[in-house]
Design goal:
single chain, 309 residues, alpha/beta, eight-stranded mixed sheet, four-stranded mixed sheet
Length: 309
């Protein structure tokens, strides 16, 4: 049987500006095309932090200066980011596959992810978003019920919740596309955060950690490997110290121990390890790989990367 993999692309694999993104997705597509060429069934998810911030700022500034328009909620901004990142990524990957003589459809799926309205994250938001505001603008945001944080010497910025993903709404569609032999791009930016009320889905003012949604996606398609591509070839413990140590092959028990000891930053490597551990523990035989996209081919041959099993 063909192996299924989920590939989670980080910020560096996408760039920040539109021109950067066009170049970055071409480079990233080479690594993904290698997987397809080697016989894997591939589902892709990706970061969207710079892009969704840009969209949120643009839409809200537009709404302020045009009386007949309103500000765009976060869920809408997330959907927009999924669309335009997926557009560039699927075209770059399609072109790379055709250059290699591989005829596989690449589809981007707008994906909603259900979150818990009582998640503690809604009471302690952590994700900074959008442009800098003055004190008056910040007060207006507070009146709307939004959270604002001050950065010394720069001004105020909106800060929003990052709840845990519970369920991917379109997971059946993802599986149907994979079963049809397609490469699927889904859960972009962690997915569009929604609250479920009976059969109604309502957008949430939040963002979801991309790596945690990648783990949910891998679980939902019953993947064999969760691949998280970042900016390091191997994850290190004791970073910046004399006893700094790169991690090669480690067990779930070791990964848990390192997490408990606080080796990984809350917003950096910790979500990657948390997603990996939760995915692996759901079924025997699964693995997770954390490495840089330019080292992926060597990592899959066992030559490098941080492997958790």
């Amino acid at each position: 049987m063909r192996k299924k993999v989920v590939v989670a692309l980080g910020h560096r694999a996408l760039g920040t500006t539109l021109p950067e993104q066009m170049v970055a997705v071409r480079n990233s597509s080479k690594s993904i095309a290698d997987l397809v060429e080697d016989g894997y069934d591939v589902a892709i998810t990706h970061s969207n932090a710079p892009q969704v911030g840009m969209i949120h700022t643009a839409m809200n500034e537009f709404g302020k200066t045009h009386d007949n328009y309103t500000a765009a909620p976060m869920s809408v901004c997330s959907a927009m980011s999924q669309g335009y990142i997926g557009y560039d990524l699927q075209n770059a990957l399609r072109e790379e596959l055709l250059d290699r003589g591989i005829y596989r459809t690449v589809s981007t799926l707008l994906t909603q992810v259900i979150v818990d309205p009582y998640d503690d994250a809604f009471y302690t938001p952590t994700k900074v978003l959008g442009r800098y505001m003055n004190a008056e603008e910040a007060n207006e945001e507070r009146k709307k019920g939004n959270f604002v944080v001050e950065e010394a010497g720069k001004g105020y910025r909106r800060i929003i919740a990052a709840p845990n993903p519970i369920k991917i709404v379109e997971i059946d569609a993802v599986n149907a596309l994979l079963d049809a032999g397609q490469v699927v791009i889904a859960c972009g930016g962690g997915g569009i955060p929604v609250l479920q009320q009976d059969h109604h889905l309502r957008g949430a003012s939040a963002v979801i950690e991309k790596d945690l949604s990648a783990g949910k996606l891998a679980e939902g398609i019953d993947a064999d490997i969760l691949i998280i591509l970042t900016n390091v070839e191997k994850v290190c413990i004791n970073m910046g110290k004399e006893n700094e140590e790169p991690l090669g092959n480690i067990s779930v028990a070791q990964a848990k121990e390192y997490m408990t000891e606080g080796h990984f930053g809350i917003y950096n490597m910790l979500p990657k390890f948390k997603a990996s551990v939760e995915f692996i523990e759901k079924k025997s035989g699964r693995q997770a790989l954390i490495t840089s996209f330019d080292k992926l081919k060597d990592a899959l041959k066992g030559k490098t990367g941080t492997w958790i099993s």
